[in-house]
UniProtKB/TrEMBL annotation:
Record keywords, A-Z: Oxidoreductase
Homology family: Belongs to the short-chain dehydrogenases/reductases (SDR) family.
InterPro entries associated with the record: NAD(P)-bd_dom_sf, Sc_DH/Rdtase_CS, SDR_fam
Signal sequence, renumbered to the chain: none
Designated name of the protein: 3-oxoacyl-[acyl-carrier-protein] reductase
Record NCBIfam families: PRK12826.1-2
Keyword Transmembrane helix: no
The keyword RNA-binding belongs to this UniProt entry's keyword annotation: no
Pfam family, one: adh_short_C2
Transmembrane segments: none
Annotated GO MF terms: oxidoreductase activity, acting on the CH-OH group of donors, NAD or NADP as acceptor
Amino acid sequence: MSVIDMLRPARGLRVLVSAGASGIGAAVARAFREAGARVHVCDIDRTALDRLAAESPEITTSVADAAVAGDVDTVFDDVRGALGGLDVLVNNVGIAGPTGPVEEIRPMDWERTVDVNLNSHFYFASRAVPLLKQSSHDPCLIAMSSVAGRLGYALRTPYASTKWAIVGLVKSLAIELGPQGVRVNAILPGTVEGERMNGVIGARAAASGISAAAMREEYLRKISLRRMVTTDDIAAMALFLCSPAARNITGQAISVDGNMEYL
């Protein structure tokens, strides 16, 4: 196999992308499909799932709240039916959580952020691992963390805490599953262009008492390349991590962020 061939994931991989109906998840799902994978996507947003299915009818879907263990069980029933097994899990679930000083964050908002951003990753990993262990196609588990999983993030403590925890989960699973040939890595996106980031910038601007435009410029000044990343940048990294070229990459937290210097 040439080096160029090593950069391409094997065709026919069976891939599950959680929270895959829009944003980063949808970009990852489409990229794997274009690379010849069989892809199943779950999401809480039925409208977004319907839109993805209309655009890419080969992608199968499930409606699920990833923070509910019973919903995740149903997703894996669907995966077994649609794919017959699993070679790749892209654990993409996550919400922004509340923005504000720690003393003003409501316990219910903290708990919801932990439920969605961290507990869901446990639910998906625990159900995917038995299937990944049965795979003969260099099985991979990719968890979506954040640049906030390596940097402190004032006014976003629930979000940052869960993203750091995902890195710990990934590094622990890499050790646990390495002897079975399952590779586990985290992708840490930086500031990603899109509607979700616009919402984050707006909320942080309001909390800081400045305009959204000024807050956007503040974000860009923190990035060495002075530009945000795109969902396709993240999808490309996911494809690479599932290619033969990455066969010895596991237990890593890989930033795709233009070098975010601080938050």
